[in-house]
From TrEMBL:
Its EC number is 2.1.1.63. Keywords: DNA damage, DNA repair, Methyltransferase, Transcription, Transcription regulation, Transferase. Belongs to the MGMT family. PROSITE patterns: HTH_ARAC_FAMILY_2, MGMT. InterPro entries: Homeodomain-like_sf (IPR009057), HTH_AraC (IPR018060), MethylDNA_cys_MeTrfase_AS (IPR001497), MethylDNA_cys_MeTrfase_DNA-bd (IPR014048), MethylDNA_cys_MeTrfase_DNAb (IPR036217), MGMT_N_sf (IPR036631), WH-like_DNA-bd_sf (IPR036388). This is methylated-DNA--[protein]-cysteine S-methyltransferase. It comes from Acidihalobacter aeolianus.
């Protein structure tokens, strides 16, 4: 599905039909449509519509201040993510200094429509969710071990599969709220908390994010904190763009950022 999404994004101006897209992944149009819809929650046609220039202009012409939506966390919306409360907790200075001593971390690699993700969890929640190269799916393990060198780290894909399913499967059931357990400075965690307030299908700028945390002159520092986000998707750093309307950077690739924004916008209910 990642290959199909990349093709749709790259050829959106050509408005490729279902057969042309299906050929790129060597599937019949019928099978591809069913598979894509199951993975993405929308049809390929609806996804393509969200990538049109007119739609992009409409999205960018109505910027929404984070100050106006700061109470949006946890509210019901078209996003499967926001149907579940997302709680973010930073590790204590003592825990950070200990490098994970006496901490147990389970990890797994799981497929998503936007490529495989490496997911790691402590007892308190998700501490790492990173898009990885399909040819090196365990690459995220090196970064995890560098941050938590003294932790007891072991595979636990059955456990890490649950939050990934909650992101992409509307029928997935969670036995508890989604929780994040991250390492970061006080400034970084303030930025990550603010990111959680951006509803799906909405955007803000780095300057808008800086204003939202009470640091209006710190757009550059905010950008660095956004880039240091250890949990893709759940902390939605992909919803931050430049003041000019350009996508800006993205740790996991601009094509993936563009596809994520289109997917979220297409899945948002019409008003």
């Amino acid at each position: 599905m990642a290959t199909a999404i990349e093709y749709i994004c790259a050829h959106a101006d050509e408005q490729p039909g279902l057969e042309a897209i299906a050929r790129q992944v060597h599937l019949s149009p019928f099978h591809f449509q069913r598979l894509f819809t199951r993975w993405a929650g929308i049809t390929p046609k609806r996804f393509l519509e969200a990538l049109t220039l007119e739609h992009a202009k409409a999205l960018l012409s109505k910027p929404v201040s984070l100050l106006e939506v700061s109470d949006a966390v946890g509210l019901s919306s078209g996003s499967r993510l926001h149907e579940h409360f997302v709680h973010l907790e930073a590790v204590t200075p003592g825990q950070f200094k200990s490098r994970g001593r006496d901490l147990r971390i389970g990890y797994g690699v799981h497929e998503t429509p936007f490529g495989p993700v490496f997911v790691a969890m402590t007892e308190k929640g998700i501490c790492d969710l990173t898009f990885v190269d399909p040819h090196a799916p365990d690459a995220g393990l090196d970064g995890l071990r560098a941050r938590w060198s003294l932790a007891d780290i072991a595979p636990d894909p059955a456990r890490t599969a649950q939050p990934v399913a909650a992101l992409f499967d509307p029928t997935a059931a969670l036995d508890r709220p989604l929780s994040l357990h991250v390492t970061g400075t006080n400034f970084q965690t303030r930025v990550w908390h603010a990111l959680l307030a951006i509803p799906p299908g909405r955007l803000t700028s780095y300057a808008g994010l800086a204003e939202a945390i009470g640091r209006p002159g710190a757009a550059r520092a905010v950008g660095q904190a956004v880039g240091a986000n250890p949990v893709a998707l759940l902390i939605p750093c992909h919803r931050v763009i430049r003041e000019s309307g350009g996508l800006g950077g993205y740790r996991w690739g601009l094509e993936r950022k563009r596809a994520l924004l289109a997917w979220e916008t297409a899945a948002r209910p019409a008003r």
